[in-house]
Design brief:
heterotrimer, A alpha+beta (272), B alpha+beta (994), C alpha+beta (166), A: 272 residues, alpha+beta, Uridine Diphospho-n-acetylenolpyruvylglucosamine Reductase, domain 2, Uridine Diphospho-n-acetylenolpyruvylglucosamine Reductase, domain 3, Enolase-like, domain 1, 3 domains, five-stranded antiparallel beta sheet, four-stranded antiparallel beta sheet, 11 helices, B: 994 residues, Aldehyde Oxidoreductase, domain 3, Aldehyde Oxidoreductase, domain 4, seven-stranded antiparallel beta sheet, 28% helix, globular
Amino acid sequence: MKPKAFDYMRANSVDEAVAGLAKTGEGARILAGGQSMVPILNFRLADPELLIDISRIKELDYIKIDGNAVQIGAATRQAKVMAWPELADRIPLLAKALPHVGHFQTRSRGTICGSLAHADPSSEIPLCLAMLDGEVILKSASGERRLAAADFQTGMLSTAKRDDEMLVAARFPIAEAGTGYAFDEMAQRRGDFAIVAVAATVSASKIRLGVGGVADKPTIVEWGNIAGDELDDALNAFAWELGGYDDVHATARYRRELVRRLGRRVIEEART
Amino acid sequence: MADQIDTKPYVGQSIERVEDGILLTGRARFSDHQPTVTGTLHAAMLRSPHAHAEIVSIDKSKALAMPGVSAVLTGQDLTEMASAFLIVIKQPMQHYSLAVGKARYVGEPVAVVVATDRYKAEDALDAIEVEYRVLDAIVDPQKATKPGAPILYEEVGDNVVSTREFSYGEPDKAFAEADRVIKLTAPYPRNSQTPMEGFVVNADYIADTDSYDVASNYQGPFTSHPVMALALGVPSSRLRMRVPAFSGGGFGVKVQIFPYVVLMCLCSKVAGHPVKWVEDRLEHLSAAAAAPNRVTEIEAAVKNDGTVTAFRFDQLDDYGAYLRAPMPGPLYRMHGTLTGAYHIENLAVRNRVVMTNKCPSGMIRGFGGPQMYFAIERLMHRVAVELGLDPLDVIRKNLVPAGSFPYRAAAGALFDSGDYQTAVERAVNEGGLEDLKRRRDAARADGKLYGIGYSVVVEPAQSNMGYLSNILPAEERRKNPKGGAVSNATVNVDPLGTVSVTADSLPQGQGHATVLSQIVADELGLTPADISVNMELDTQKDAWSIATGNYSARFSSSTTVAAHKAAVKVRNKVARIASVTLNVPADQLEFADGKIFAANNPENSLKFYRVAGSAHWTPGSLPDDMDPGIRETGTWSPPELEPPNDQDQINTSLTYGFVFDYCGVEIDRDTGQVHIDKYVTMHDSGTLLNPLLADGQVYGAFSWAIGCALFEEFAYGDDGSFLSGTFADYLCPTAPEVPEPLILHMETPSIFTPLGAKGIGEGNVMSTPACLGNAVCDALDIETVSLPMTPSKISALIHAEETPPPAGGAKQAAPAPAGTGRVIKGSGETTVPAAPDEVWRTLLDPDKLAAVIPGCHSLDKVGDDSYRADVSLGVGVVRGRFRASVDMSDMDPPNSVRLSGGVQGPLGASKGAGNVRLKAVDGGTHVTYDYTVEISGKVAAVGGRMLEGAARIVIGQFFQRLVSQVGGKTAAAGTSPAGETLWQRILRAFGIGR
Amino acid sequence: MSELSGTARHNISFTLNGETVSGSAEPRMLLTDFLNYELGLTGNHVGCEHGVCGACTLLIDDNPERGCLTFAVQVDGRDVKTVESLAGREGDLNDLQLAFRKHHALQCGYCTPGVLMSLTAYLEHTPEPNEEELRDMLSGHICRCTGYVGMVKAALDVVEQRKAKA
């Protein structure tokens, strides 16, 4: 289980990295923490010509408050974000979700933006960004653009990022007073990818529920602040709308069951 | 019957391990870290992506031309250099290290590349071109027995390759006279304890002597040594096997290295250099070995008071694609104990061995015990429920009575010692069963799902090497009766009087060196630190037998005895030398604190090392009949291990421990997760040689049993695709998932082993899955449950009916694809603004077709209605190159056509078929289509979690785009919502996206 | 930095257990293979090569990371520590290693170096974890022999010892 040959470039700046992308095009891939990419390479399921390693670009290793959002650079590791003292106040949903992301040993290397760029439908971080209506910043040799999370992740392992672009930062909106946040997931073992992940935000007038692991990307639904049977009915309708699929670990029906039951749990938790 | 040894200073103590220093500092050399000869080459294997396929041709020319490549071997090459492996039964089932003629499971080695390093060897694998003709595969063992099932071995003509029936006592009478007959079907899944270190083989062919020198982390039994030598066509003295002292776990799995040993030997012979192979994790999970999955139909004849008078077993054991020796061991190793811990005199058994298109089964910790006890102990629980009795009372009523030992069980096991009743009552009291019942009652009162389970197990150790001969009828066995089990250990004293020990137990982490140092230290009056133990084994230098190895809890009741015998020999010799100087008869000398002294006058003493050393320095001064030097080998075979008798009774093992478990579980109603509230496990394993290490064995067995019960299974699709190729798919429990059990001990010494020890390493692998199964059935009030008890499965048992979709309310997704995720079915329709004739022409025009097939490098028309293409397919970062073939049939121009074909490449293979129908409508053609795609090989094996959806797309894309092209270039734009990407459309088509 | 060709070996140099080491590797060579085959280290073990089992966990600039998900060229100029760094020059075991021996926290010992390196980093990061937190951290490792009981006891023992010393 050894990778195929590839060229390697350790970029010292964003300019270097995007120049590499511009030059090599489709065959170039960004390597940040490598926690998803390198297993794929080791299994020889990918065949990049060039890996552009951005893990040592200092200008991308930051957490900063910018306007009404927390902006996190592409080389910023998950562990650093988890250890940021303001996280629970500024992005409570991410604070609740990050302990579910992999393990101590992978969070110390894996990045927030790498998870977003990989666009795994079961991943917690893309679900959080979508739930919060966050944004990503994409940069290429010809410029920079921002995309809403909903427009960025287009499907299974697929994003709207062009081949000449790299994701340089993610922007998570800062928590609003009067809104409750909750996150939960069902994974068979600690740290596994979720069979179903659920996130909820509840304010006086609105319930927002996000589900990962059931469709090809995080799916968000919004209701008024409903409760009781009305909420159960809404959850059931949403579960059936998502449908789900069978795999080795779980049936579609189980996934729907979790949408109903864990969905209810996180909404109740976010209410309090 | 063996004399018992008095208690000694070290045996029985929880001393820290002598192995640990070197392991904790990273200095231990595991097999991959053994030094290699300069010029050693490295092997990598091409493995079948198909579960069942004829190998039409293999073109290795491109691979041979790759940089660094020395050799490429195929199955055909092997048939010219080696013989097929001997197998245990008389059937025409040929097995070589590489597939010959056809491949019978996903992951079967088809070719091997030898190159200067592993990276280059893997590069060359991608250049080997294999043409397969895919055959229908059979996965389910019960379906495999049915007429019309695909057959693995045409020469045999049946997938059931061995059937044997046994009867003990008067089972028919017992069933006829029973108050009730209670039945259960108990399926047991495929799993393995998957050691953290995989197989490693380093083989060197020595042309001068036509011999082979092999270093490997092989674990025995050395019954496989003659199998390997015969396959290689050399005398066994010319196959030198060397096993390093440290192995990264074995659990039985490393028995199954032997076909790779032969393969690397042949590679070395061809390449002219030593060749090394290190198994990777995907290879291990897909192709090393699995415990045989078994379907047991079991019946009990019972009286209304809970007394069981007879068992009837129908065991269908699934050995996968090849019957590698010593298979079908798991079906026969437990044979003597088929009545479990119970006094049941009547027993009927049918054993069948079935072959299917899965990884060959093998020796795995528990070796047939988990399957058997899951059936027995689940049935005993059912007996209690059906009769309205307490499950523990039913167990108590049927246990082998105290005071009846040695006890001959119906099928022949001779239980050496025990007091099962006392063990149960002690565990009930010391483990707090009454408190656990109160916890259950309180939880249930709160509306929670809580259950209690029990299980009892007799744990065999040191297999009778004759157990497999019971697969033959008595008249055939008589010609060549087999029994016994030989163990060897050597104690050496060097010229400075220091002591070293070697032994034949090939430890895989249990701490054998520590225990041997305790035993020898006690005998010679030294400390364990004084004893150097070297656990390497070298068949050209060390004492060994066919029983040599590490399996079936062999060490504590076997190799320890040989070591003790060797130490006694050394002691006697040293005592005789000392008796001259001390002027005390040898039998009145004692050994302690490094001294030899007169029992009645400790002042009259000599240092051990001085006396022992003199055997080297001054041989002339030794007693007349004494050989110089001190090197003594202890060899032992217990007389109780007789061949099976004419009534098919066999004492399958030497010692029999006892395990009693109970537990409380709570099940989360929302998620279906099983939480173990409390687990108590009582062991009577005879005398404990080192309680710290004994507990380690219990914790380890329990931990794997948690995996078996709740997490682990090698999953296969119906087409034989393998679905558990990563540690994210094959779920080994980690620290948060494994609770700490309460371990209790009772010590009833074995009367057949001088140290009184029995085995302890396998008990919980047998008891715990059944105990947890019983607890879950109790919690949910259900009759049967299959392992592993995953949340998804349990949730469906809790919630009988799913909440229906809202009537006419919200949108509803298309039905999920059927099957287990690798068989993808779908259908669709679209309207194309072109007449059917034009659509039809597009379909048949190679240039048009090539232009739109994604990543199409070339497309050739190879027949009237057949195409071959070279395509790159991918999603996200995942991308690979494939050869695709498409055939058109059932052509009804311009109305309908059937498309079938497949793709194949290093990432895997798929085959599919679809129907396309064209119908003229206003403004164009209405196209409807349906398709089925099956995915196999690497993408299926590793895709389960990491790449599930991506794999579907990669393989499905070709077909999907082909269908799109039939609809013309407007199809996509015309039928997709604005902004939808190609990927979304494809995903939607496959029922994944919305 | 210029591109490194995929088909050539490139010189790399880094600090390994306190000493500067160097060698050459193709970009695709995994750090685990470099340590094992190029430098002849025996302490770093490979268990799955896809980042799940944790056997190859080592410290890069004192962060616990998977050696099998790291290319050797990536550690050029960095500080790498493996299990060989824990004991003293004379082979005297450190407190964690001693506790592992005392509590029988290892059997075959194959996963142990990775676990020790994780714990080394973790106890710096979280000096006084409770059992649940420890088990959560250990979920990044697979051990097939021990059932994790000894590891948890050993780590808690070390926590207490260090607390007493502080």
